[in-house]
Amino acid sequence: MTRVAAVDCGTNSIRLLIHDTDAGEVSRRNTIVRLGQGVDETGAFATEAIERTRAALADYVEEMQREGVTRVRMVATSATRDAVNREDFFAMTRELLCRIQPGAVAEVISGEEEAALSFAGATADIDPARGPFCVIDLGGGSTEFVMEGHAVSTQMGCVRITERIMHTDPPTADETAAARAFVDERIAEASDAVPFADARCFVGCAGTFTTLSALAQGLGSYDPARIHLSEIPFDRLRDVTANLRSKTAAQRRGNPVVHPGRADVIAAGATVVEQLMDAFERAAGATSFVISEKDILDGIVAGLIQD
User: Fold this and answer.
1) 3 φψ region: left (φ > 0), alpha (ψ -120 to 50), beta (else)
2) Which of 43, 89, 296, 307 shows its CA 20 to 30 Å from the CA of 218?
3) For 3-108, CATH number?
4) What confidence tens digit (pLDDT) does each residue in 34-48 have?
5) DSSP conformation letters of 270-301
6) Where would one find the signal peptide in this protein (predicted)?
7) Are 3 and 18 in contact (CB under 8 A)?
């Protein structure tokens, strides 16, 4: 029996997956820390953002110790690629992760590696006959698009768009229009690298997509088992995204399936999803997303087990 852990630290959240080679998944956790707070504007991590992340990671390390984890890999994505004071972040992760594995420290991975790991995790439980797959990993600072042999990372995400464009609560029509134009430009960039027209199944992963699935299904609480591999028609999703954008963050926070830390940025995430639907309809005649609860964490674990 071997227990390994994967940690993914993105712009909005830090997440943990502990896996046992015999028993399978032991624990999966998500904590909103907003590490990328202000990075798009200042180019640096805020002190309080690093401290929030430190507290969450320390909690995860304690759980790893209780569960007997012997190997850990932590990846850091969009916000850390952008921050000038990222060495402060690395020092903090080294101090904590070395309690599990000597020499362990967070790694800044490229958008392309992030995309490949997300693809491996997101498609693990989907019938291969449904492919070719296009996986979309919509994060806080970036969004990755990946198909077999093709991957690209774009600088759009729910936190980045909220801080840069959608300042009003709820966003105004002008802000929404500006966000749509910004997203369309990023999708056009992605389409130069990833052949959307060749995809038969579009797979959405990460918090915006999973939350939208829960809302589209009318769940009374966040239920990963019902969200994983759910297939949500575009028409239903458009109703959900429009409704989300019309509400204030406080109103969104009142829905039990919306994480309180996601409520102020999910209108931007919903706008990204709307533009993705338009693009995939045009390119491939797509009519739905398959939503995966598995993602980059599962891809990291697979790599740890194989090594």
Assistant:
1) beta
2) 296
3) 3.30.420.40
4) 888 888 788 898 999
5) HHHHHHHHHHHHHHH---EEEEES--HHHHHH
6) none
7) yes
